[in-house]
Write a sequence for this structure.
């Protein structure tokens, strides 16, 4: 979780700590240039209060806080407000400003997700997938589209990965031969009956489950071997589109894909080259067939 996100969790802080937080959020660029004594003076608190606050935020002290805070701040677009994720486009926005707003929003979402990632957890997940002999990927709605993209990339690396879009047939392909299966479930909310059935069915079969979700309150999280919680700030009630959830899931899955890719880099480069050449050759053969068919038809 990024420092910006942690600073917004007001229930964790005392009255004096909240006064410091309010100043930091309202004056982010100014804080970078303030010493601990100067920040204490402008917030009517004390240096010891600020140090306690920084430790609550998971950093070693005020100096460490400023370094990490400046890094996060530089990754955002300076002098711009954070984008409201659910309704990023107001009614009077100029049409020529829409691409800029998307750029700002995507930058913000990826930055938030990046700072919330547990890299060791992703390495463990990549290791588990790489050594599995049957990976079943589950998804529904927009999550399914993201899942299918991940599956296609992994198939180019010749991984035994599968995504069945037919309800009730997700596991058919693996039952007869797999010895080390993995269930990889991608669900923004992870609360539907369908997702629950996926989790319960795989657990019943002693199959490890990896869950990717943005709902940190899902009761399914504690049942899974690994659960990656995406912090993108999008809700499921009223929103202009699933922009944040889509870009954050794509970002996460691309990272997992690349961690898998790096485990056998040279061979994977060869596999991709061979796959693309096969596609080109197949396309050429198809065009030649169509040409010959039309030629014979006109005789």
């Amino acid at each position: 979780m990024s420092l910006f996100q942690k600073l917004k969790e007001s229930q964790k802080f005392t009255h004096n700590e909240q006064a410091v937080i309010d100043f930091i959020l309202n004056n982010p660029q100014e804080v970078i240039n303030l010493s601990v004594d100067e920040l204490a003076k402008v917030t009517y608190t004390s240096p010891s209060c600020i140090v306690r606050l920084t430790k609550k935020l998971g950093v070693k002290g005020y100096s460490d806080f400023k370094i990490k805070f400046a890094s996060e701040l530089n990754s955002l677009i300076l002098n711009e407000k954070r984008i409201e994720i659910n309704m990023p486009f107001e009614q009077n926005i100029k049409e020529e400003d829409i691409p800029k707003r998307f750029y700002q929003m995507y930058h913000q979402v990826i930055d938030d997700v990046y700072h919330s990632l547990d890299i060791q957890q992703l390495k463990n997940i990549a290791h588990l997938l790489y050594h599995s002999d049957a990976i079943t990927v589950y998804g529904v709605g927009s999550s399914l589209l993201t899942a299918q993209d991940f599956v296609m990339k992994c198939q180019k690396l010749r991984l035994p990965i599968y995504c069945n879009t037919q309800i009730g047939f997700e596991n058919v392909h693996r039952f007869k031969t797999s010895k080390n299966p993995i269930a990889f479930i991608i669900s923004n909310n992870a609360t539907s009956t369908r997702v629950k059935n996926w989790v319960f069915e795989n657990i019943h079969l002693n199959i490890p489950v990896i869950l990717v979700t943005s709902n940190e309150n899902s009761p399914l999280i504690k049942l899974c071997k690994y659960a990656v919680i995406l912090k993108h700030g999008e809700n499921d009630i009223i929103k202009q589109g699933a922009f944040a959830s889509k870009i954050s899931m794509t970002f996460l899955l691309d990272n997992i894909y690349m961690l898998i890719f790096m485990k056998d880099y040279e061979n994977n480069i060869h596999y991709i080259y061979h796959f693309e050449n096969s596609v080109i050759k197949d396309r050429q053969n198809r065009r030649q067939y169509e040409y010959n068919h039309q030629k014979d038809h006109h005789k």
The chain is about 55% helix and 10% strand. Residues 46 and 293 are 84 Å apart (CA to CA). The mean pLDDT is 84. The first helix runs from residue 3 to 7.
